[in-house]
Amino acid sequence: MMLLNTIPILLTHNIIILLLIHPLHAIQSIIPLNNTCHNTCSKIPVKFPFGSSFGCGHPIFSRYIKCASGTLQFSTAAGIYTISSIDYSTKSLIITDPLMSTCSSMQNSGSFTLDRASPFTIMENNIFALVGCSRTSPVFERDAGFCDTGSGLNVCRGLYSCRGVEGIGLEPNAPISTCCVYDPTISGGLESGLALPKLQCSSYSAIYGFGGDEGDPMKWEYGISLQFNGSYYSDACKNCEDSGGFCGFSGLDEAFSCKCQNGVNTTSNCYGRGYALSGSWRHKIQTCLTIGGFLLSLIVAFF
Ligand SMILES: *[C@@H]1O[C@H](CO)[C@@H](O)[C@H](O)[C@H]1NC(C)=O
Ligand SMILES: *[C@@H]1O[C@H](CO)[C@@H](O)[C@H](O)[C@H]1NC(C)=O
Ligand SMILES: *[C@@H]1O[C@H](CO)[C@@H](O)[C@H](O)[C@H]1NC(C)=O
């Protein structure tokens, strides 16, 4: 008898615990949501001013960033790059160019350029190495002062020691006379990027860190770190986010629009707009589920 009585009680406890642990999942399966904006893309958090799709985030940023086929992409006139991380506190992001050279793989690559009016700038800590340049390249012109002839040469030596250089038709440890590390202290920052065909170089490698070991190019951190303009956040957007919505835009004039999690868009916030998840409805639904679970446990216990 004891045993028969305890089994259903144990089962009910599991049901109650499930309902308590997964209230959001439970709600999502009950209410069909028209979720147009998402807060992640693969594993990267997507927050304002970025948006996961058109109509989400700030309109200026939506021209450059979108979530497509499971990756967060950064697009410019020169190409499409993958965003590997975003740091919202320092307003910076790391992008990787699939055609860029690294120690393990070098290949002919295109240019990296930013549109002049873009809200992004290339961060100063980036090192840009041009590899496989023609001897007549303008970067080697006397008095051009384009290439770093000091510590930059160590970066060239490191890259040219990699097996990957075979990908651009060189032998490992080939002379570094066809390599140039861009020197921002002389020529100024790379505001708009590097146009490779014009510079007569096969490829480029961007390094944003040495991974704690400057002597081992396999450990270097390859990618381009960019700063984004964080001054687009507004009180209207904060009000929308506080109500559980995503800041976005709509219409031909790309006016501010708050996109609520149930698919409704408003000019202000999501409070009182249907069953916005973070509004009072969430609490009502949670309470219903909890009371429901409790009643169920009473019914089962009586059997
Ligand atoms: C950032 O954007 C604001 C608003 O468009 C603009 O006024 C400001 O000049 C920009 N800042 C930089 C550093 O580009
Ligand atoms: C949800 O999406 C469907 C089709 O995508 C659309 O017809 C419907 O109006 C949307 N619902 C709301 C509440 O926006
Ligand atoms: C909501 O979205 C629809 C369709 O995208 C758009 O026509 C309408 O202007 C939007 N409303 C607001 C308040 O943003």
From TrEMBL:
Top enzyme category: transferase
Keywords on record: Glycoprotein, Signal
Entry keyword annotation includes Lipoprotein: no
Primary location group: membrane
UniProt catalytic activity: L-seryl-[protein] + ATP = O-phospho-L-seryl-[protein] + ADP + H(+); L-threonyl-[protein] + ATP = O-phospho-L-threonyl-[protein] + ADP + H(+)
UniProt signal peptide: 1-26
Gene Ontology molecular functions: polysaccharide binding; protein serine/threonine kinase activity
Domain Wall-associated receptor kinase galacturonan-binding stretches: 37-97
Membrane topology: Single-pass membrane protein
EC numbers, comma separated: 2.7.11.1
Localization per Swiss-Prot or TrEMBL: Membrane
Record-annotated Wall-associated receptor kinase C-terminal domain positions: 224-262
GO CC annotations, alphabetized: membrane
Protein name: non-specific serine/threonine protein kinase
Organism: Handroanthus impetiginosus
Taxonomic classification: Eukaryota, Viridiplantae, Streptophyta, Embryophyta, Tracheophyta
